[in-house]
Amino acid sequence: MNAPQDEAPLVSVEGLQVVLPTGERSEVEAVRRVDLVIRDGERVGVVGESGSGKSVTGRSIAGLLPTSPRVRVNGSIRISGQEMVGAPPAAWDEIRRSRVGMIFQDPLTFLNPTMRVGRQVAESIPPGREGDGSARTRAVHRFLEQAGLERPEQVAARFPHELSGGMRQRVLIAIAIAKLPALIIADEPTTALDVTVQQRVLKTLDTTVADLGTSLMLISHDLAVVANMTDRIYVMYGGRVVEEGATEQVLHEPRHAYTQALLRSVRSLTDDGVELYSISPELRRQLAEEAVDAS
Ligand SMILES: Nc1ncnc2c1ncn2[C@@H]1O[C@H](COP(=O)(O)OP(=O)(O)OP(=O)(O)O)[C@@H](O)[C@H]1O
To answer: ABC transporter domain: from which residue to which, for each copy (predicted)?
Structure first.
């Protein structure tokens, strides 16, 4: 957000098309000519229903698409000005080591089950950044603490299966922030958690990203989850971006019928009395009034 006009944005995606194989002779165009920008320090939400192409877009930016030779990526993904479409694996490794951290929905697929948590956090600290030995151990505890884990010394000594789902998700946050990345891509980071734990983990992600000044790409099927945490929202449907705008504008003056429908689904959830972390009391009141007006 604060980048000078002539500086390349942190992430600039233009005309991105991703085709993935779905069977021996079949494929799906998961992403269709998507344009997307994330500036330094900016928080961007990507919303849309299951299968709309959010995850494939996020994974494209992290260089984490399936490795099959039948995967086709066209268009442009520039990270800090560097073109990454067609870049060699080593260039992507470097981007993930130092620029982009990713938090997934299911921590167990990401965490190494046979390695203590502390070591997994330590391994994501760039070499030389926090020193060695006890300085590095102190840094690991600091990152775990920043991710909202109390008694970090004890957590560091545990294996992933010895932690609750919410704690594991916080470990992923610690691993992501230990790189001090320019961008964190959080893909449905709390969908697998129950509502109260969800709220606390989102809050931690929110404050951690703010403290570090890191850009955030928050992917969710739930508009309510991204409402309070982002500056701008992209709404995806059928592999395309159907609406993009400032979060306030998308929430209050949605232009696309699909966004309007997504907002209605938020409304019905709140009408059912389900507490959603990211709906402000003001928006909740307004949505309730609109629902009454519309009925
Ligand atoms: N590894 C894969 N191989 C083949 N097809 C895939 C793969 N991953 C995703 N797809 C397909 O690509 C399309 C977009 O999927 P994507 O996961 O990006 O959607 P999404 O909006 O993130 O939904 P969800 O929240 O369910 O992940 C879908 O048709 C999906 O079936």
So the answer is: 11-263
